[in-house]
Design brief:
Strand content: 15-25%
Radius of gyration: 23 Å
Largest sheet: 7 strands, mixed
Shape: globular
Number of domains: 3
Number of strands: 12
Distance between the termini: 16 Å
CATH superfamily of the largest domain: P-loop containing nucleotide triphosphate hydrolases
Number of helices: 10
Helix content: 25-40%
């Protein structure tokens, strides 16, 4: 007997697939079980979901028993994860608060941030996870930063424009090299394989990571001169975004550049005969196809996919192939067998 699952079930399953913590996954599973119709066709699936819930319950119990075991782990959420890397007192926490409105420890003294501090940055109809990291400094950079930096989708190199920005940039790049990371321009700002590294780092086996340089304290007197020196240092390498957490200057542009650097597209799935939910896009890597969208909705949708229809905003709908490369803002109607 077929399961005949309702659309709300697939929405809950999409939330489960996007969840990054055991608690969020378990909550999504509970919704799936509550929505699922009761008949013989769903017995096997119901048993599978209950088994998953039991395993997640055990994992949650182990986490509670372990106390601070996960203190240095930040599970990715939203459209992508960007980490803030900077020297002591570079203005990372103030920038984080300005972008996310999350409460953070902010102080005019070094090493205010001791643990990774995640928060969500809203942008139009999606959210990006930002993580404020402890400052980097020769001899004082925590070794555990390496895992977070390597796993991040994007690095935000936070530099105080009002002090000695070129020295701070060299410090940050040197500490990243110590973590075996090389900062590279995002795809939209770079030629293939382009990266920025000091001569001492050249030739080392470093993991290339997309990065933006974020200049802070643009409202202070020496910031314009500092930005000019920093642009000369960067030349045609990493892009520089100038900001002020105090006045809000440059923050909108920074949000746009962060999302652009993640290189993702937002796609809206339209159920046949019903309007698309334009408030909850599927966020997929650029280059994803109709088949990737179908798999994101549900693996059974991909297996049973017959054809898809693209609904442009000001034109007639058009049938597209399974390998059609999705564009940002596409509305796609999936038809299954």
């Amino acid at each position: 007997m077929p399961a005949n699952l309702p659309p709300d079930y697939y929405a809950a399953e999409s939330d489960f697939r996007a969840a990054t913590t055991p608690g969020a996954k378990r909550a999504a599973l509970e919704r799936m079980l509550a929505i699922m119709p009761h008949h013989k066709g769903t017995d096997h699936l119901r048993a599978e979901l209950r088994s998953r819930m039991a395993k997640l319950g055990q994992e949650i119990s182990r986490q509670h028993a372990g106390g601070h075991a996960d203190a240095y782990v930040v599970h990715r959420e939203g459209a992508g994860q960007a980490v803030l890397v900077g020297a002591p007192n570079a203005g990372k926490s103030s920038l984080m608060h300005a972008l996310t409105q999350a409460h953070a420890r902010v102080g005019d003294y070094p090493f205010t941030t001791q643990l990774p501090q995640p928060a969500m940055m809203p942008f139009e109809d999606i959210q990006v996870q930002l993580v404020d990291l402890p400052p980097v400094s020769p001899g004082a950079t925590p070794a555990w930063l390496r895992g977070l930096v390597h796993e991040a989708d994007l690095l935000l190199l936070v530099i105080d424009l009002d002090t000695d920005p070129t020295a701070d940039l060299q410090l940050v790049l040197g500490e990243l090299a110590g973590l075996h990371v090389a900062a590279c321009p995002p795809a939209s700002d770079a030629t293939p394989a382009q990266s920025y590294a000091t001569p001492a780092q050249t030739g080392e086996a470093l993991d290339p990571k997309r990065a933006l340089v974020v200049g802070t304290r643009l409202d202070l007197p020496a910031a314009d001169d500092g930005a000019g020196l920093l642009r000369l240092e960067l030349a045609d390498g990493l892009p520089l975004l100038r900001t002020s957490a105090a006045t809000g200057r440059g923050l909108h542009d920074l949000r746009e550049r962060i999302v652009a650097a993640l290189d993702v597209v937002r796609v809206y799935a339209k159920p046949p005969g019903r309007p698309a939910d334009m408030t909850r896009p599927f966020v997929l890597p650029r280059g994803a196809t109709v088949e990737h969208l179908a798999d994101a909705v549900h693996h059974e949708v991909r297996e049973r996919l017959q054809y898809a229809v693209r609904w442009p905003a000001n034109a007639a709908p058009i049938r597209v192939a399974h390998h059609y490369e999705l564009c940002d803002g596409d509305v796609i109607e999936l038809h299954t067998a």
